[in-house]
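This section describes the prediction task in plain terms. A model, or a person checking by hand, is given the sequence of a single protein chain and must write out its three-dimensional structure as a string of tokens. No templates, partner chains or ligands are provided. The sample shown here is typical of the held-out split.
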Amino acid sequence: MSTPLRFNEALLIADRAFRPFQCVAWSPQDGTGVISISVIDRTSTRLLGRTQLSTDTYTDSAQLADALTRSREELRSQGFDLAPWSMPE
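The expected answer:
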């Protein structure tokens, strides 16, 4: 069993997953532990995609990798070109 990812680690991984675009993440102060992630264009004027990750998802590297891969595939299917990425070990 691997060590759970910390909040900041998950955010850094998500940021790298959506390059060359910008990744903005925040956690609503409602006590749910959910992270909301928005991917925006380089000019910060257009929202390209949005997803929410539960605590269970972003603390588990395999679940986080799966969620980010699905989000990347969705952006690619919309015609956005993302830099190569793989989940850090």
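For orientation: Residues 7-76 form a domain with the Double Stranded RNA Binding Domain fold (CATH 3.30.160).
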